[in-house]
Amino acid sequence: MAPGEAPARSFVVVVLAVNALSAIVAVAGTKKALSTVDVEDELDAARAAIRRAARQHHRRGGGGEGGDVGSANWLRFYGGEADYDLLSRVYRNPAAFYRSYVEMERRFKVYVYEEGEPPILHEGPCKNIYTIEGRFIEQLELMSPPDDGGGVRTWDPTRAHAFFLLLSVSQMVKFVYRPPSQDRAPLRAIVADYVRVVAARHPFWNRSAGADHFMLSCHDWGPYASRGQPELYTNAIRALCNANTSEGFRPGKDVRRP
Ligand SMILES: *[C@@H]1O[C@H](CO)[C@@H](O)[C@H](O)[C@H]1NC(C)=O
Ligand SMILES: *[C@@H]1O[C@H](CO)[C@@H](O)[C@H](O)[C@H]1NC(C)=O
């Protein structure tokens, strides 16, 4: 993310940046049944561009003195004054990472399911603790520019690379959980039911067994709630603040949230 960029847009984008393109590229490569040609072509073009950038980086002798790389776009992306050696230590291939980011900004589209009613779905806390759940929903669902307005949201699911499951675990805890019972079964039941509904009404969940779908939760019980639907737990991308591997966080597909 470039410093000083508008927070609303970058907020959504950064959450997805790390996993999104690679996960979706992998999924789209294996499950073609319903994809439109456009999405496949787009992903092909993105992959090719990232590979080209990666090769360029290697040709320029990545890890070396820098030299003419100093004028490359991707180096400016990291702040202009970026220390090339330091970048190479943080990123396996900073040029490829930059290209992947550019391709994501240009192409990446998220479809937001409309099923469900507030307050448990389509709504989350926007103040104090767990705010990210509410803010993310608000920015993606309520504040997105219209289709083709340059935003990340699309209203056309055939153009989507990822599908957002609009649930807020902290809302479930607030409205469904009865303290001090410690009984979290109702949370799992809601998650299972929600996924059952979107899988029955749309072809997209079954197409990928959930692998191009994502949820976001900042509540400690987020990982637990996601177990309510086995495919959500094992296949879908879970953006979690509780990113403990002891709680089932899988770094290869899940995303850590601050
Ligand atoms: C997806 O699979 C589930 C479980 O097998 C099934 O109940 C549902 O009808 C399927 N959805 C569609 C759209 O075919
Ligand atoms: C995360 O893991 C640590 C170490 O196993 C444990 O002490 C802590 O309670 C866990 N936190 C959550 C939120 O699960």
UniProtKB/TrEMBL annotation:
Q: What InterPro entries does the record point to? A: Exostosin (IPR004263), Exostosin_GT47 (IPR040911)
Give the GO molecular function terms: glycosyltransferase activity
Q: What's the superkingdom here?
A: Eukaryota
Q: Can you say what this protein is called?
A: Exostosin GT47 domain-containing protein
- What residue ranges carry the coiled-coil annotation? none
A cellular component term from Gene Ontology for this protein is:
Golgi membrane
> What's the chief localization of this chain?
Golgi
For the keyword Glycosyltransferase, the answer is yes
Q: Which organism is it from?
A: Oryza meridionalis
**Where is the Exostosin GT47 domain positioned along the sequence?**
105-256
Q: Which family does it belong to?
A: Belongs to the glycosyltransferase 47 family.
| The keyword Transmembrane helix is annotated on this UniProt entry | yes
**TM segments?**
6-28
Q: Where in the cell is it found?
A: Golgi apparatus membrane
**Which keywords does this Swiss-Prot/TrEMBL entry list?**
Glycosyltransferase, Golgi apparatus, Membrane, Signal-anchor, Transferase, Transmembrane, Transmembrane helix
Question: How does the UniProt record describe the way this protein sits in the membrane?
Answer: Single-pass type II membrane protein
